[in-house]
Structure formats: structure tokens, C-alpha cells
Amino acid sequence: MTGHGYALRPDTETVPLLGALVTFVDPATLLAAAGAGPVELLADATFPDPVRRVRFTVRAEAGRHRFEASVRAGVPPTAAGLLALGLAGPAGMLLAHRLAAGDPRADRVVAVAGRVAAGASRRLGFRPPAPAGPPPDAAGAAVLDRARELGLRPEIRHHAEPGGRRVTVCGTVPSAEVTPAHLRAMVALVLQAVRELTGDTGDPTVLHNRAYLIGVRPQPPATPPGTAAVTLDQVGGLDDVVARFREIAVSFRHPQVMARWGARRPQGILMYGPPGTGKTMLARALANEIGADFREIRTPEILDKYLGGSERNIKQIFREARGYRQPTVLLFDEFDSIISYAGAGGDAASQAVNAVAGIFKQEMNTLIEENPDVIVVATTNFPQRVDASLIRSGRFDVKLAVPLPDETGRAEIIAKMIRELIDRHEQPGFRMFADDVDPRGLAALAPGLTGADIREVLRRVQLAKAMREATERAPVGPISQDDLRDAIAGLGRG
């Protein structure tokens, strides 16, 4: 699914390491992300007893990537030394179990035995050995050798702790030289530490049938795509508009810099273009980009059949806006249906519409001075219906055309929407889209389609697959290029 230039899934590789299967998801992106701060790995992984916790991070600073891991196990350190105390056999095993359960009587037995053994050692002239981990097995030695070959210079230390043991593993490599191979080598070292703490380094089945995921994969939003969770990164086919919105977001996030230069960020944004091109989605994405609340004003909230009611509603909306204490994007969707007028007409209806527009202009004149945390966004499918004085600079400083996407834009939209669905729904054993899906080929078949149309195409194929599986009561194949091609053709038929 990458030959067409639109990778729908991240680069993944599954490799066996010490009996476990480890899947690396887009490791190059992970290593790059470490430059922005520590990236935590294996946070949700489970390991064989008695390992309790593994903390594994990678960060990039001062021109070097540093890998750090801490592996903790719950076996009391004294249990590991029972053989040295001469407590082998059934009695030693029983004592080890009681130590693991926290039996204070077992602690006292071991303490006495330890003092006796220490005294005998001093009298005989023996020096106590330095704390060390178990001797490495052949697989562990190979893992260590590989890390050294790659220049990681690994440091492995064993620590005795109250109620358990801990192994720390560290490695560094110049950031200019770091590769996914270094990441794989460090993961292998961490898994070797896990094996050591289980006490079964010679047993290849300790990690057998266990699977681990290493990678920074975008988390699907908590709400469906296209709603409140949308970001500018999810907007496809509108590069110029997105770039302008990013500039606006920068001006909104840095009020002190703006004030130093006496610069005023845009107060209002008007977006116009055909329906379904993503105008409302862009407004929501802008709110998320600047960390703002989102408030959408719909036509029924303003228009009132009683004389003077619409004007009062407009005033109330702006009165509330002046009181917002959080950054807010205030969206007037379908703006032309709220306050459009041609500037002529003497009948009562025309006069009422003119009055609403006049109040809107007055309120916009002072909003930014009274509450700079509010930015007004208006959208319309019919810009010719909106009076020029209403949207002049000073009220709506930015006017953006949101056109129908061209073929390249459609391919980008298709690719991004499919990626969202993959991130949200695909699981081990369930593949939602087939390898033959080609966004560029689909885009060529869909002239004139908007982002909303493309989302409807995907909805139809998802529904068709789900209904077929439900009625046949058997798994069906993933969505293919032919399925999507048929759905595009069906959309044209209604």
C-alpha cells in the first residue's frame, strides 16, 4: 500500500527477540520524536512473574540518543542468596516462598543465617563478592555483543532493593548515527534483563508467545473523525488554507509578541466555497490548534419571528462572547442565511434583515478590544449574498476561498481518512483495508467529489462489509480497491 506514494499504514517490522515477537512501528519516527522529549516504551506491556515493572525511555539531548531502562522484580533479594547461605533443598524452597509472601519469621531466619555466614567468611579470610546478576547465557551474551558492535556501550547494573531486585540498562549513541538497529538492540537488552530476573536465563520459553509493540503511533481521537477532535493535520487537499490557519494560530498563541510590535491578529475569518469542502471542520481544527473552546452559532439561535427578537439575540451572543474567560472560536455557520442582505428593499422583511446586519457590524467593531481571546469565524456557500460592508477588513480581516479539491487533493483526503480508520479499527487478526487500495487511482475516478462525499463513500463500504458479515455470520475480506471503486460509482447514482 505504499507503491502509489500514499502510505496508509506506518512502517512496521516484527522480529523474534529472545523468544518474544517484537513489532517495531515506524521506528524512525520514534527516534525523531525523542528530540522533543523522552519517549516512553513498553509502558503497557506485561512480563512473566516475578517482574513487576519495566520503565524504558529514549531521549535525545546534547547530540546523543540515550536509552534508559529499569526492570524491577518482586522476588526478595535474600531469596536469590539462599544457596550462598547453605539453605538449598526443600527447606530453602519453602523459605523462599515465605520470603516472597513477606513472612517476617522467614526474614529473621535469613538474617540470622546471613550473620553466621558472614562471620564464618571473615574468620576464613573470604571477601564477600560484589553484587552481580546471574551469569549470562549464550543468547544473552549474543545480545550484549550485538549492542557493543553497534557502538551503544551498554551499561548493565544489578541492584538489591527492599522486597526485590532491579536491573538498570543504559546505552548511548550519537544522534547523527542512531538507527532502528540501535533501538532493536536496546529492546533485546531489556528483554534479557527480564529473563535474568525470572531466574530462567537458560530457558528459551520464558518469553515464548509473548508479543510487544515498540513505536509512537498516533492515537485515534475519542470521538469519531470529522467532529470535535479534528486537527489541522487531518485536513487534506487544502494546503494553502491550512498554512494560513497555522499562521493565525501562531499570532493567537503569542499575544505578548504581537503587543510588542503593536500588531493586531485577525479578528474575523470568512471562509467561502461549495458545500462539503470542509469549512466547518477547518473552524473546529483551528480551535484545537490554539487550544480554544468552540462555540457554533446556528440560524435558529438568532432569527426570531417577533419584532426585535433577532437583534436581541445577536446582542446576547456577543455579550456572552465578551465574558468568555477561555480562548474561543465563535463560528457563524451558513452566515448568509443569518444576516445576508442586498442593501436595498423597503419592505418590513428587508428592514428587519438590515437591522440584524447592522447590529452585527456594531458588535464586531469592538469585540477584539474588549475580549482579544475570541476570534469570529463565518462560513458561507454564497459569498455574493453577504454585503461587502459587513465583511470588510477590520471586521473580517481574512477571507479564504475553500475550493473543491483537485485530483491530488482528493488523493490526500482519501489517504488521510483511510489512515484514521486503520488507526481506529484495525487490530491483530483484523485487517480493514486490503493492500491493493490506491488513493491516487480512486481520486482519478472521483472528479468533483468533496471531502464530505469521500467520507460518505467510506461509510457505504464499511456498512456493506459489516452487513455482509452480520448476515453471513462469517468473517469477510478487507475493503478492496474494487469495493471503493464501486462505491464511488454508486455515489453518482444516488
Brief digest:
The protein is an alpha/beta fold. The chain has helices at residues 27-33, 77-80, 89-100, 104-124, 138-149, 180-198, 239-253, 255-260, 279-289, 299-302, 309-322, 335-339, 348-370, 407-425, 439-444, 451-472, 481-493, and strands at 12-17, 20-25, 39-41, 51-61, 64-73, 155-161, 164-174, 211-215, 268-272, 293-297, 328-332, 374-380, 398-401.
Task: Provide an overview of this structure.
- The protein is of the alpha/beta class.
- The chain is 43% helix and 17% strand.
- The protein has 17 helices and 13 strands.
- It has helices at residues 27-33, 77-80, 89-100, 104-124, 138-149, 180-198, 239-253, 255-260, 279-289, 299-302, 309-322, 335-339, 348-370, 407-425, 439-444, 451-472, 481-493; strands spanning 12-17, 20-25, 39-41, 51-61, 64-73, 155-161, 164-174, 211-215, 268-272, 293-297, 328-332, 374-380, 398-401.
- A hairpin with a 2-residue loop joins strand 4 and strand 5.
- Helix 14 (407-425) runs parallel beside helix 16.
- The longest helix is centred in the C-terminal third of the chain and has 23 residues, at 348-370.
- The radius of gyration is 32 Å and the shape is globular.
- The two termini are 29 Å apart.
Give the overall pLDDT as a whole number: 81
Query: How far apart lie the N and C ends?
Result: 29 Å
| Element order: H for helix, E for strand | EEHEEEHHHHEEHEHHEHEHHEHHEEHHHH
Q: In percent, how much strand structure appears in the residues? A: 15-25%
Note the main sheet.
5 strands, antiparallel
Q: Report the structural category.
A: alpha/beta
What count of helical segments does DSSP give? 17
**Would you count the extended β strands for me?**
13
**Strand line-up of the largest beta sheet:** 3-4-5-7-6
Helix content range: 40-55%
| Radius of gyration, in angstroms, nearest whole number | 32 Å
List low-confidence stretches. 76-101, 128-134, 220-227, 341-349
Q: Which outline best applies?
A: globular
